[in-house]
Amino acid sequence: MTRKPQRPAVVCNCAHDVVWRAIRDFLRGELGILKQDSNLPLFSDYSERWLRDHDHHIQPSTKRSYEQLLRLHVTPRFGQMPLKKITRDDVKNLASTISEKGDRSRNIVRWILTALRAVLSSAMEDKLIDNNPASKIGKFNKRERGVNKAQAMTMGEAEAFLNACVEICPDYYPLFFTALRSGLRKSELIALQWETFNLGSQTKTGTVSFWCSVITTWGI
Fold first, then answer.
1. Are 215 and 209 in contact (CB under 8 A)?
2. pLDDT in tens, 24-41
3. Can you give the C-alpha Rg of the chain in angstroms?
């Protein structure tokens, strides 16, 4: 009894057709494999939108500081990454890389992480990511404190310093006198104006600050 011959060539050709169609659709992006990541916002796009949307919710100096820290340190590393692709290890590596640079203090690393954490917290609220990979990263930035600590001047040292100012740089005596007696920050001292003082009650009204050639006022 003679068996009916099979047609393997037809089956083989059909299989090849299916494979080539799958490859073609994959290259065209029609299988949906790559569409999920393409719909996620990049960090650079989202951080820029976050800065615009929070313009009235944070102090101007804080916004400018965040903008500068993100632009110089975070966006070059994460700018072209989708938000969901940023992992905790990525953030730890960023902090470690910046800390290894000799001109980067621990405080600068902390400020960079604070700015990154704020952006990613907003992304969590927008349901774009499930968790904040920058949360509690600060503990990895701790170092042993140095032996030398800043100490305030004694009354005698402050008096000697002001007496030297009178002899050496009398024009700056009011500035140093105000700094010693008020405890203002350098940026606040630079931006001081007569309108901020209440000489009757010997108090200062509001807070004025100088940051990158811009004087900002709040709390008045």
1. yes
2. 666 655 555 445 455 679
3. 30
CA–CA separation, 176 and 129 (whole Å): 49
Asked if residue 120 lies in contact with residue 127, where contact means CB atoms within 8 angstroms, the answer is no
Domain boundaries along the sequence of the chain:
43-141, 172-218
One-letter amino acid for residue 152 of the chain:
A
Q: Are 64 and 211 in contact (CB under 8 A)?
A: yes
Which amino acid appears at position 85 of this protein? Answer: K
**pLDDT tens digits along 124-140:** 999 999 999 998 886 55
Least confident of 22-31, 99-108, 163-172: 22-31
Long-range contacts (CB closer than 8 Å, 24 or more residues apart) made by 195-201: 196/220
Q: What is the pTM of this model?
A: 0.54
Going by the DSSP 8-state scheme, the letter that residue 213 receives in this structure is T
Q: Which CATH architecture has domain 43-141?
A: Orthogonal Bundle (1.10)
